[in-house]
Amino acid sequence: NDESEKIQKNLRHLYWLVGIILVVIFVLVFLILRNFKPSLLILSSIAFSVLITFNLVYFLKISMNMLTLGGLALGFGLFVDNSIVVFENVLRYREQGASPVEAAIKGSKEVFLPVLAATLTTMSVFFSFAYFQGRMKIYFLPLAIVIASALAASMLVSFSLIPALSPSLVRRGRK
């Protein structure tokens, strides 16, 4: 059976789903921050997290199927959480009058442990997939590895990209 047409249709549907999710995330972040550039910075954290994850998947030789791609698309909301927390704390320090560099350093240092704890607790749910048996393990272990890798990449991006670029985007004393 040639199922290539069905797979192409499913992939197109998945691409639309990813596009809709990204637009919704951007709109929500923009409504909260009311500033285009910081919203774009937080949205870019998703792109970098997914890019790092795809590289890890390639090097670990994990097959990308509809389940892993769908899980990755649905996890976008989780991936952006770390960036929002770090950016908001940097913004808070900047509004209190700290210099851009000082706000980036203090803001990211202050939330490191809470963000680490939140990320690890979410990742720990997926570690249980390694104990599945038979077909369940074959299908769901790659999903767990992909999502856990993406969450780790999200944390890496949140504590590197966001503090590095946020000082130039946040003005002092903005309410």
Topology:
Elements: H1 4-33, H2 36-60, H3 66-74, H4 76-95, H5 100-110, H6 112-127, H7 134-158, H8 161-165
Helix pairs in contact: 1-2, 1-3, 2-4, 2-7, 3-7, 4-5, 4-7, 6-7
Describe this structure in words.
With 175 residues, the chain is mainly alpha-helical. The protein is 81% helix and 0% strand. It is built from eight helices and no strands. The chain has helices at 4-33, 36-60, 66-74, 76-95, 100-110, 112-127, 134-158, 161-165. The longest helix has 30 residues, at 4-33. The protein starts with a helix and ends in a 10-residue tail after the last helix. The model has no long low-confidence stretch (mean pLDDT 84).
Major sheet characteristics? none
From the structure provided, what is the oligomeric state, counting identical versus distinct chains? single chain
Estimate the strand proportion.
under 5%
Give the total of beta strands. 0
Average the pLDDT over all residues and give the rounded result.
84
**pLDDT under 50 segments (min length 5)?**
none
Helix/strand-derived class? mainly alpha
Radius of gyration: 18 Å
Helix content: over 70%
Task: Label the overall shape.
Answer: globular
Q: What is the H-and-E element order?
A: HHHHHHHH
Helical stretch tally: 8
- Terminus-to-terminus distance: 61 Å
